[in-house]
Write the structure tokens for this entry.
Amino acid sequence: MPDPSVAQVAAYMGAGIAMGMGAIGAGVGEGYTAGKANMALYRQPGAADAVIKNMLIGQAIAETSGIFALVVAFILIFGVDFTDAGIVKAAALLGAGFAMGVGALGPGVGAGLAGGEASQGIGRNPIRGPMLTQVMLIGQAVSQTTAVYSLVVALILIFVV
């Protein structure tokens, strides 16, 4: 007979891994963006409005992978039926946490790098702000695709396996 407590432990560990690693990626990316925005404001205080707007947009997108990790963590904690859950289900739940957690690291940092460099570029040449923000958004959208893939795999592991 399957032991549901093994699956519960795996789900809770997976939730912690997903959220812990997801927070690292988003936090590093957002911090980098803020740091580069501060450097831009030091260089060009007159461009404060454009730099701050760009920084906040960049940080919001860098947070996306952290939000995905939070969703997976909540599902693992509150949304799993542990009745008749055996070792395979336990492995799938732990794998879902790893998939989302590790999958959130790169996109969070990558989106933050794009946001930070765009903020710094606005500080160097404020007239190019709209173009820099547009390129930043495209780059961040592409960098977040792997977080979406990780989310899809995590959800499959939770609900299909």
